[in-house]
Design the sequence.
């Protein structure tokens, strides 16, 4: 039977595809506008006040970076549950070195600690046969133990307890945090979509054996993932410390709570990536998710209990929707 050739209007990147994406974008924007209008009514006009919008924008920046890191992580088919513990240690480094030597030293220290620890994680993933979720849970407990040791140590307690000086926290405040978000978006979008490394990462996530047969060095690519994610988590830690001013110690795997909101953002972005590039979708989803939680706060729905329960429910729903049709087991 003669195969029917694809017409120009059916090919990827054609005008019809562009029209479909623009139509989706229009419907999406209108839908968000309607939802925000309802939120504003429910909160008696407080939701759309500029000061409240600024709060949402300020809260979404550093989780967006961690969610971008998760895009690379999920693209290669791995999980890492230790990132919360890494953020705690890298935030410690940011605060201590910024207070002692200035903002640049704090940035370098936070990025360096984040990069080294996540790279160590991926060395373990690449060179052992331990499932990544098991290895990362063990690593999370190790990082938590190190954080407790630093927090209780006689020579380190005062250093890690001290809040980051207010004048050093400019990148946790608007508009500078949005400038960092914009610069990070451009770089991460390019690496994920326009480089051989980004292509190889997505390839091994699709099928590592086929990728290996086609000449992709799977182990080397995983180490690249560790390096890229480490840099992103280091920047996340710097931004988190700049925003919060201080980081508290997490024990008993409580550090995993730090990844839940970025995880929900990444999963929602994964659902939308059929219509929007996933790197673009991340900050959009971050804004929407934090808008929902902000609305719940304005309606006096308690955080720490019901809001976190709803967050876990969102994660389950997003994961179920996102994993439809996926037959492989998560590594």
Sequence:
């Amino acid at each position: 039977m003669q195969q029917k050739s694809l017409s120009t209007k059916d090919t990827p990147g054609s005008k019809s595809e562009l029209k479909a994406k623009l139509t989706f974008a229009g419907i999406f924007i209108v839908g968000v506008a309607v939802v925000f209008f309802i939120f504003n009514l429910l909160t008696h006009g407080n939701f759309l006040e500029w000061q409240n919008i600024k709060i949402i924008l300020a809260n979404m920046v550093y989780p967006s970076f961690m969610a971008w890191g998760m895009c690379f992580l999920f693209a290669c088919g791995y999980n890492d549950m230790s990132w919360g513990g890494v953020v705690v240690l890298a935030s410690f480094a940011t605060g201590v070195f910024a207070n002692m030597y200035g903002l640049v030293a704090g940035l370098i220290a936070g990025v360096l600690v984040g990069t080294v620890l996540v790279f160590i994680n991926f060395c373990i993933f690449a060179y052992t046969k331990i499932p990544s979720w098991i290895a990362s849970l063990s690593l999370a407990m190790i990082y938590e133990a190190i954080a407790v040791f630093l927090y209780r140590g006689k020579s380190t307690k005062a250093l890690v307890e001290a809040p980051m000086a207010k004048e050093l926290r400019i990148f946790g405040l608007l508009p500078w945090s949005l400038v960092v978000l914009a610069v990070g978006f451009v770089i991460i979008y390019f690496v994920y979509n326009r480089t051989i490394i980004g292509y190889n990462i997505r390839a091994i996530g699709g099928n590592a054996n086929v990728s290996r047969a086609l000449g992709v060095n799977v182990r080397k690519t995983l180490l690249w993932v560790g390096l890229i994610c480490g840099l992103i988590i280091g920047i996340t830690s710097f931004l988190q410390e700049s925003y919060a001013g201080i980081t508290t110690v997490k024990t008993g795997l409580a550090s995993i709570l730090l990844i839940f909101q970025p995880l929900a953002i990444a999963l929602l972005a994964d659902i939308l990536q059929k219509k929007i590039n996933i790197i673009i979708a991340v900050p959009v989803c971050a804004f929407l998710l934090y808008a929902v939680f902000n609305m719940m706060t304005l309606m006096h729905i308690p955080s720490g209990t019901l809001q976190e329960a709803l967050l876990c429910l969102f994660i389950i729903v997003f994961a179920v929707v996102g994993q439809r049709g996926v037959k492989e087991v998560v590594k």
